TrEMBL record, chain A:
Single GO term (MF): oxidoreductase activity
Gene assigned in the entry: txxe 2862-ndhD
One family name in Pfam for this protein: Proton_antipo_M
Top-level taxon: Bacteria
Protein name, entry field: NAD(P)H-quinone oxidoreductase chain 4
InterPro entries xref list: NADH_Q_OxRdtase_chainM/4 (IPR010227), NADH_UbQ_OxRdtase (IPR003918), ND/Mrp_TM (IPR001750)
Automatic annotation (TrEMBL), chain B:
Catalytic reaction(s) noted: a quinone + NADH + 5 H(+)(in) = a quinol + NAD(+) + 4 H(+)(out)
Oligomeric and partner information: NDH-1 is composed of 14 different subunits. Subunits NuoA, H, J, K, L, M, N constitute the membrane sector of the complex.
Enzyme kind, highest EC tier: translocase
Membrane-crossing segments per the record: 60-84
Function: NDH-1 shuttles electrons from NADH, via FMN and iron-sulfur (Fe-S) centers, to quinones in the respiratory chain. The immediate electron acceptor for the enzyme in this species is believed to be a menaquinone. Couples the redox reaction to proton translocation (for every two electrons transferred, four hydrogen ions are translocated across the cytoplasmic membrane), and thus conserves the redox energy in a proton gradient.
Pfam family, any one: Oxidored_q2
PANTHER family to which the protein is assigned, alphabetical: NADH-UBIQUINONE OXIDOREDUCTASE CHAIN 4L (PTHR11434:SF16), NADH-UBIQUINONE OXIDOREDUCTASE SUBUNIT ND4L (PTHR11434)
Gene3D superfamilies: 1.10.287.3510
Organism: Thermobacillus composti (strain DSM 18247 / JCM 13945 / KWC4)
InterPro entries cross-referenced by the UniProt entry: NADH_UbQ_OxRdtase_chain4L/K (IPR001133), NUOK/Mnh_C1-like (IPR039428)
UniProt-recorded name of the protein: NADH-quinone oxidoreductase subunit K
GO biological process: ATP synthesis coupled electron transport
Automatic annotation (TrEMBL), chain C:
Keywords recorded for this protein, A-Z: Membrane, Oxidoreductase, Transmembrane, Transmembrane helix
Keyword Transmembrane helix: yes
NCBIfam families registered for this protein in UniProt: NDH_I_L, PRK06590.1
EC number: 1.6.5.11
Ranges that cross the membrane: 6-26, 33-54, 86-104, 116-135, 141-160, 172-193, 213-232, 253-274, 286-304, 311-337, 343-360, 380-399, 414-435, 456-476, 496-518, 601-621
Pfam families: Proton_antipo_M, Proton_antipo_N
Protein family: Belongs to the CPA3 antiporters (TC 2.A.63) subunit A family.
Name this protein carries in UniProt: NADH-quinone oxidoreductase chain L
Residue ranges occupied by any NADH:quinone oxidoreductase/Mrp antiporter transmembrane domain in the UniProt entry: 135-425
Length: 535, 100, 622
């Protein structure tokens, strides 16, 4: 049941179309450029919301686009049947795991485009990179072929490198550099893992159409089927013996490579330092996207490739993952408590919140995994909102040092209110989205690891401590003279704030919007683990 | 039979190598290089006579090599003279133009 | 009997929610209209809950309705509401106090420019509190539990420009959050141990009512964790520290949230999950002793405080201890009865204190005096509240405290002694407070005048309730319908005469002593201070609990934070720099090799060749 019109392609590449329009607008006309960019980002938002609405968890294959893209014929003497070839496909599809993240990416992109009023130079180049970045993010979540995924993934790196390096604050070059080195390393590890996967588990025997040809592809489904069935790898149909059967050691190698690659992105504990720099240096509208969407690619990758392809290994490693998650939660929280710069508080709080994602993943049951994805989406919205406010604050006060701020609730009641509300969402107040993700992750993990969960739950207290410390420092307290004349949010700032907060409330009050979509997305993983336990 | 030729060539090569790496005077370095080249020639001739597949080709090739080496020396000496004109010395350790 | 209104009980919280949304959407543009919207919202809630209560007094069945809130795979988290006699009663208590406080605030907050914000917060609080009461399962309750916490936080910090208010708000949120984590973990435990993962109170009653379904150890653990949550919210020792500081908020808030409703939520929670406690004697004992200790501990602090609201706050802590003790002794009836009467007379006392503060603009009782002459209504109503609190018959506080003490005498005489001692202290500090504020000569220069009608009318209404609320359950035969109706168990009546006698005597003794010291002057005021200054100082400093917490938790957390920061900077960051540095210095060294000396190049080539040959030859021989 494939749809005739390539909706997914349109969704992914609509920013590029907008980019082409953008090229005809003179570079000095910032207002027209911004309007064009905002209008452009609205297209994927509309499309993704429509997709979200029309998606049916019972029939996840309604939207799928699949064509052969690159074919490299191999002259393999060992092959005693037909021929063999590498076939890479242009293959886009949505499922319950990627759809929430696609919608999140499209939404945050619109909000970030609105927030880009604070960009002061080279607007045209900014929006070009911005739209390329959006295409990259959407593609990452929609791709169903490893190589295609990799290409989109790299596109986001390059675009973000320039966005940080050109429009960042004082130490922008250094931040961009650190970002590229770390993520480049991550990509390299990912590429190694992908190549290993394609040339082993990617093998499939295409008996019907090409007359018994052996095809190596990066198709997720093929790889997952091969890895989890455990038979076809060494003994393909037709008596063919796969020369690249995966040994246990090799499986662990690939698994760990994937963990490391996406762990850098998430970021997992010792690999987080690059993110602090990005949070502190990049322009706020870019951090919105970075913290709101790009970090989520790490969580998405962990679930899709780490857990999805190697459920047994993940189960064996689940205690380590949970421990890493719990340590991240507490470590990030404690560090956020002592930071003097608000952006760093938020950066460390991201570390803490991504620890919760790890906890949900480590639970390896449906509740925990849904909690992890829920936490990804919710943190995306919340951190986008927080950085949106940070951008507006910074433009007015010229600082984000906590020592220098204070009493802003008086000159800016609206923005302070939204900041407080966003802080509440971030510390997991029920009724707002942060709670659901946190709660589901804890609930899932509690089934298997009670003590780790209980320890991680202390993070809930610490979150209240550091959020209140910083948010109240900014908004409460006596009014300061130099801030008395500050203006509250303008309309163009208020609209995205309200919109984001509305989504946070929606997810917090009616989480079924998301959980119903995700329904059944993890069935394969769960079923596989259950059979393993049973056998 | 072959081994004595090869030993001879190896000794020649090592002397040449030593000279090429340790002498400061560029003329002596050039002469040492020639020595190494001749060690190689010796090997070629020896293999062509006593090797697994004896053939005249090897000996003819060594003639070629000798003439090419002569041309190479001519070029080398020309560069050396140019350098001497420019810098007034022929000590190799005082040239590090290649670094730039 | 048919349940007509109970089916629509979910609408009760919707009224204040609507008021909150309107107030937030239109903001400051509303001015006085905002107050009216809020009053209408709380009146709607009151009217409907009164109908529900009447229906249940008439013997209506329990009504329950729920839906799947989140469905994941084979699991479902539900949300729903439950109308029992207990919740019907609580609905009326909450919405009545909220309604009165709203009216009172129209006068009290008249000049505040952020009045609509205030009423918005109050409406949000009323919504959350009513939701908490109605919740039919622990998860729904937890959600509203957190929401009332955040409303309390917002209202404590309402005057956000005051550094004390900011600190108090932060403290309240964080300290209660510690308790909340206990409740959260209890929730997780329950979810995985309950059959069918059912968190509803009905299921809890079923499962824990029969022995053996859940092991003793787990039951105790769950009960204790739930109690931790209640300790945080209800200001029990050792998490009581936030409640006195919470008095930085506007006084109507202290009456509504920090006396009558939210702080009682902890007691309500324990009452609601009582089957779990009942299944574990250890948990019951814990509750009883923590409650008893808190009762006497807070009462002793209240004696030495000088801030009128702080005295009342410690008194609240002490009375909540009483309620906990009652439940710990196994009598939900007595605990809920005291909660019910306490809500009225403590709200009355706080609103009276607000009226006083409104008039004299100070909170120090030593700067007040003689207000009884100028503020007659306030003084009379306050006196009723104080007598009710001190447990003087026939006021409501007497009957409910009496029920608790009778229970204690019956179950655990040691706790009875503690209770009596706390009752004596209560009478003493209330008489000190009353006589210092209302008796003697005016100190504020006689400018104090009675508050407007919007403030005094609620006082009068509450005073009437403080008088009559106790008559629903008297320890005479045939009068105990309330306990029977509420929980199915009447209050303890054995030895009632003795208890009544002792507690009345103790109460009167306390008041008499106060009168001797603060009015007659027969006993010098500094009789204790002069002999044992350390004792006074210790009480004034509240047993140094705040200082200890600061030293133990705040300082150590900061130290851990600093240490982690150093670790992050130097070890994690250092490792990163090391890796980067290694690459850099390797490059440097390689650059140095390019010296421009052909001879050294030649040497490298030779070395390389030797290594290569050695490697190939070595490989062959290995």
């Amino acid at each position: 049941m494939e749809s005739s019109f390539p909706w997914l392609t349109l969704l992914t590449f609509s920013p590029i179309i907008g980019l082409l329009v953008l090229l005809f607008i003179p570079g000095t006309n910032s207002r027209a450029l911004r309007t064009a960019a905002i209008v452009t980002t609205l297209v994927p938002l509309g499309l993704s919301l429509w997709l979200f609405a029309s998606y049916d968890a019972a029939n996840p294959n309604a939207f799928r686009e699949q064509v052969d893209w690159i074919t490299i014929a191999l002259n393999h003497e060992a092959v005693n049947i037909g021929s063999s070839a590498y076939v890479f496909q242009y293959h886009l599809a949505v499922d319950g795991l990627s759809l929430p993240l696609v919608a999140l990416a499209a939404l945050v992109a619109v909000m970030a485009a609105l927030a880009s009023v604070h960009i002061k130079k080279r607007w045209k180049a900014f929006y070009v990179w911005f739209l390329l970045l959006e295409t990259g993010m959407l593609g990452v979540f929609l791709a169903r072929d490893l190589i295609l995924f990799f290409l989109f993934f790299e596109l986001t790196l390059i675009a973000l490198f320039f966005l940080i390096g050109i429009w960042g604050s004082l130490n922008r070059e250094k931040a961009a550099n650190t970002f590229l080195i770390y993520n480049g390393l991550g990509s390299a590890l990912m590429l190694i893992a992908f190549v290993l996967l394609i040339s082993t588990a990617g093998a499939s025997l295409n008996a019907t159409e090409q007359g018994g040809d052996l095809v190596y592809s990066g198709d997720y489904a093929t790889i997952a089927a091969n890895l989890t069935s455990g038979e076809s790898l060494t003994n393909l149909p037709g008596g063919y013996d796969n020369p690249f059967a995966l040994s246990d050691g090799m499986r662990w190698t690939i698994f760990i490579l994937l963990l490391a690659a996406f762990g850098i992105k998430l970021p997992v504990l010792p690999l987080h330092t690059w993110m602090l720099r990005v949070h502190a240096e990049a322009p706020p509208s870019v951090v919105m996207i970075h913290s709101g969407v790009l970090l989520k690619m790490g969580g998405y990758g962990l679930i899709r490739f780490g857990i999805g392809l190697f459920p047994e290994l993940a189960e064996d490693a689940s205690f380590v993952l949970a421990l890493l998650g719990a340590v991240s939660v507490l470590y990030g929280a404690v560090l956020a408590f002592v930071q003097r710069e608000f952006r760093l508080v938020l950066a460390y709080s991201s570390v803490s919140h991504m620890g919760i994602v790890l906890l949900g993943i480590a639970s390896l049951n449906e509740i925990g995994l849904q909690g992890a994805v829920f936490q990804l989406v919710s943190h995306g919205l919340i951190s986008a909102l927080l950085f949106l406010i940070v951008g507006s604050l910074y433009e007015r006060t010229g600082t984000t040092e906590l020592e220098e701020l204070g009493g802003l609730a008086r000159p800016m009641p609206f923005m302070s209110g939204v900041l407080l509300a966003a802080g509440m969402a971030s510390l997991g107040l029920p009724g707002l989205s942060g709670f659901i993700g946190e709660f589901l992750a804890f609930l899932g993990l509690f089934e298997t690891m009670k003590w780790v969960t209980a320890i991680a739950a202390i993070g809930v207290i610490l979150a209240a401590v550091y959020i209140l410390r910083s948010v109240l420092k900014i908004t409460f307290g006596p009014q300061q003279e130099r801030y008395a004349v500050l203006k509250d949010a303008r309309l163009i700032e208020a609209v995205p704030m309200i919109a984001l907060f509305a989504f946070i409330v929606l997810l917090g009050v009616y989480p079924s919007v998301l959980t119903d979509t995700m329904q059944g997305s993890f069935d394969n993983i769960i079923a596989h683990l259950n059979t393993r336990m049973g056998g | 039979m072959l081994s004595s030729y090869l030993t001879m060539a190896a000794i020649l090569f090592c002397i040449g190598l030593y000279g090429a790496l340790s002498k400061r005077n560029a003329v002596i370095v050039l002469m040492s290089v020639e020595l190494m080249l001749n060690a190689v020639n010796l090997n070629l001739v020896a293999f062509s006579k006593y090797g697994v597949l004896p053939s005249l080709t090897g000996q003819i090739f060594s003639l070629f090599t000798i003439s090419v080496a002569a041309a190479e020396v001519a070029v080398g000496v020309a560069i050396l003279i140019a350098l001497f004109r420019a810098r007034g010395v022929v000590n190799v350790d005082e040239f590090n133009e290649m670094r730039r | 009997m048919a349940t007509v209104y109970s089916q629509y009980a979910w609408l009760v919280p919707v009224f204040p929610l609507a008021a909150f949304l309107i107030l937030t959407a239109f903001g400051r543009g509303l001015k006085q209209t905002g107050a009216i919207v809020a009053v209408l919202g709380s009146f709607g809630a009151l009217a409907l809950s009164a109908l529900v209560l009447i229906e249940h007094l008439g013997g209506a069945d329990e009504y329950n309705d729920s839906f799947h809130w989140i469905k994941i795979g084979g699991y479902a988290l539900t949300a729903g509401f439950d109308v029992t006699n207990l919740t019907a009663l609580m609905l009326v208590v909450v919405s009545l106090v909220a309604f009165l406080v709203n009216i009172y605030s129209m006068g009290y907050m008249k000049d505040d420019e952020r009045m609509t914000v205030f009423f918005g917060y109050v409406a949000l609080f009323t919504f959350s509190m009513l939701g908490l009461v109605l919740a039919d399962n622990l998860l729904t309750l937890y959600i509203f539990w957190e929401l009332v916490g955040v409303c309390s936080f917002l209202l404590i910090g309402f005057w956000y420009q005051k550094p004390e208010a900011k600190a108090a708000a932060k403290k309240a949120f964080i300290v209660t959050r510690i308790g909340d984590v206990g409740l959260l973990i209890a929730l997780l435990l329950l979810f995985w141990y309950m059959p069918d993962h059912d968190l509803s109170f009905a299921a809890i009653e079923n499962v824990f009512g029969q022995t053996g379904l859940i092991t003793e150890g787990i039951t105790t653990l769950i009960a204790i964790l739930i109690f931790v949550g209640a300790v945080g919210k209800s200001g029990q020792f050792p998490l009581h520290v936030w409640l006195p500081d919470a008095m930085e908020g506007p006084t109507p808030i202290s009456a509504l949230i920090h006396a009558a409703t939210m702080v009682a939520a902890g007691v309500f929670l324990v009452a609601r999950t009582f089957p779990i406690f009942e299944a574990s004697q250890a948990a019951l004992d814990t509750v009883a002793w923590v409650g008893a200790f808190t009762a006497i501990f807070a009462a002793s602090i209240a004696i030495a405080q000088n801030d009128i609201k702080r005295i009342l706050a410690y008194s609240t802590v002490s009375q909540l201890g009483y309620m906990m003790m009652a439940i710990g002794l196994g009598s939900v009836t007595a605990g809920m009865f005291h909660l019910f009467t306490h809500a009225f007379f403590k709200a009355l006392l706080f609103l009276g204190a607000g009226s006083v503060i409104h008039a004299v603009h100070t909170q120090d009782i030593h700067e007040m005096g003689g207000l009884g002459k100028t503020m007659k209504t306030t003084a009379w109503t306050f006196a009723i509240g104080a007598l009710a609190l001190a447990g003087i018959p026939p006021l409501s506080g007497f009957w409910s405290k009496d029920a608790i003490l009778a229970e204690a005498l019956h179950a655990n005489p040691a706790l009875f002694v503690v209770g009596i001692a706390a009752a004596f202290l209560t009478a003493l500090y209330m008489s000190r407070l009353f006589f210092l504020v209302f008796a003697g000569n005016p100190k504020a220069g006689g400018e104090a005048h009675e508050s407007p009608a919007t403030m005094t009318v609620p006082l009068i209404v509450l005073a009437v309730l403080a008088v009559i609320a106790g008559f629903v359950e008297m320890p005479f035969s045939g009068t105990g319908w309330f306990g029977e109706w509420l929980t199915g168990h009447a209050a303890e009546h054995e030895g009632a005469a003795l208890v009544m006698l002792v507690s009345t005597a103790i109460g009167l003794l306390g008041i008499y002593l106060g009168w001797l010291i603060y009015v007659k002057g027969a006993i010098s005021r500094d009789v204790v201070t002069s002999r044992a200054p350390w004792l006074t100082r210790m009480l004034e400093r509240k047993y140094y609990i705040d200082e200890i917490y600061h030293a133990v938790f705040t300082v150590s957390l900061r130290a851990i934070g600093r240490a982690c920061d150093a670790f992050d900077r130097h070890v994690v960051g250092g490792a990163v720099r090391l890796a980067g540095g290694a690459a850099f210095w390797t490059g440097r060294a390689a650059t140095r090799m390019q010296s421009g000396q052909p001879q050294s190049y030649g040497l490298y080539v030779v070395i390389g060749l030797v290594i290569l040959v050695a490697a190939i030859a070595g490989r062959r021989f290995w």
